[in-house]
Structure prediction request, 156 residues.
Amino acid sequence: MKLIIGGAFQGKLEYAQNTYKITDGWIDGRDCTCSQIVSCRGIHHFHEYVRRMTGTGGNAFLPDGENDAETGTQVLWNFRNEDLTALENQADRFADWLMTENPKLVIVSNELGYGIVPMEKQDRFWREATGRICTCIAARADEVVRVVCGIGMRLK
Prediction:
């Protein structure tokens, strides 16, 4: 697995496409499903995928997750509450699932931890969730690159 991070509009997707020679098979975190992550070659706007999952108690429905008490559907992660300990455990499980299901996946995500802290609690939680999930993914990834102005700097 590879993780590409950096600020908004820094050329992360183009860097990933050129460096890893992947021009097709990309999905967009703004509208993809969890099941699409299993079969894609890369996901960009990963931070937006996390936003959708953390917004209004979003769930990532997967066959090997726990049962959701309200719907009975099995879930990998559930952000109905903002418990940071639960978030850490779920981020760890999600990273394990990604590594098992799609070990060659290239993930492109904005870094959200810089700048002004959001006023809205849900936005702060989304930023925290993205950071924790990306940290867990980075620990498992064989390569982590930060891109600034289209130039990649290998971190791992």
Observations:
- The chain has a mean pLDDT of 84.
- Residues 19 and 114 are 26 Å apart (CA to CA).
- Helices lie at 12-19, 34-39, 46-54, 84-101, 121-140.
